[in-house]
Amino acid sequence: MFKSVLKLFLRTKALVGFYGAFLLFVLFFAARQFMSDPGIDGILGACTAPLSFSIFAFVLFAFIAYEFGCFCKRYSFEECLRSTHNGYQKFIMVQGLWLLVLVFVFLLLMLIWNLLLCVRYDIWRTDYIVQMFLNVLLSFFLIPCFGALFGFTASKSVKRINAYLLLVLFTLLCSPLANRLGNIIYEFGINIYPFLNIFDLFPPALNWRPVAAFGHSVLPYRWVLTGFWALLSLGLLFWKMSEKRRRIRFSGILVSLGFGALCFSLFLQPASKLLLASDDPKASIMADWDYYMQKHKDISETAATFEIKEYDLEFTVGRELRATAVLKIDKNNLNEYPLTLYHGYRIQSVADGNGQALSYAQEGDAVTVYNPGGQIINEI
């Protein structure tokens, strides 16, 4: 049956042409990169340049899988396959295997490209090679596989126009354009980034130049988010395929949705997710602008009554960022010491250099440390 499916695929010259043209474009881009200098992006930027093909690969394999999945209806032999013992299910499985072969060829091409970049720039650090391989596996195998599953499931669920509209909408929500949309809507006081984050499949920094701002991303949230969407599509595929075999149908749906829910719960857990550019103004480098310019415009400066001669900061990084600060001041007998914190910190305790507790009052970022009686204080 594999040969029959192969012949059927080769009969569709459009799909073969799109797939071949995409591979040739990858080869052309790689050759052009090898013939030019890294430029302003530097070596890391050059090594991460292939990442931009992840989004194009998703669209391509979703399109191929949709058209490939519609073959049964288009050539009117779906009823014949369903009349045989497991014929339809076997045909679907062989189609899936053939799509997996197409994805594997693309994966092999991208892996060779990345290895040749390591040869050109003499990058043979073991940790970088491992990071690069994991990134290639995620960006150029798992995401294209999800694209193929997405398109194949759509071919069994919706009509062509609706499927293409769904693909365009999903791709736009996953692309850097969604960040621009989120930023525009945020100007009206509406934060849609928690919704947009569940579509954050592709490598971050695709909208950044240079891409070296991030490099190879293998953060946990991308793996579990890709797994969530893939399992969700697989559950829907089970719903459409096994109409007569209810036990297989519901078992496949429950297993897919169960593991999908597990992946989504892991995605919601705190993780080391780096938010770049204007992504989520409340949590990224735009947070300062949002905090001071949008929500606290009434903050005013006051003249300092003392100077900090020296300070020592000790940070503890865990599920929360904790800090211990030791301040040496020039005037040690004031009744109160007004201080301003970087936003978001909450004071737990204040003491002098001898460890004696000092009273304080915190209102937002403003902290006032009290020294009743003007006792001598060298450190806070």
**Number of E-state strands:** 5
Determine the fraction of residues in helical runs and give it as a percent range. 55-70%
Instruction: Give the termini distance in whole angstroms.
Output: 78 Å
Order of helices and strands: HHHHHHHHHHHHHHEEEEE
Can you give keywords for this protein?
380 residues; three-stranded antiparallel sheet; single chain
What does this structure look like?
The chain is mainly alpha-helical and 380 residues long. The protein has two domains: 2-287, no CATH class; 308-374, no CATH class. 56% of the residues lie in helices and 9% in strands. The protein has a three-stranded antiparallel β-sheet, with no helix packed on it. Helix 4 (53-69) runs antiparallel to helix 7. The radius of gyration is 28 Å and the shape is elongated. The protein starts with a helix and ends in a 10-residue tail after the last strand. Mean pLDDT is 81; it is low at 207-213.
Characterize this entry briefly.
The chain is mainly α and 380 residues long.
What's the arrangement of secondary structure elements?
Layout lengths: L1 H10 L1 H22 L7 H6 L5 H17 L1 H4 L3 H6 L3 H34 L5 H30 L4 H15 L2 H10 L6 H4 L23 H22 L4 H23 L18 H9 L12 E10 L3 E9 L6 E5 L19 E4 L2 E5 L10
Antiparallel strand pairs: 1-2, 3-5, 4-5
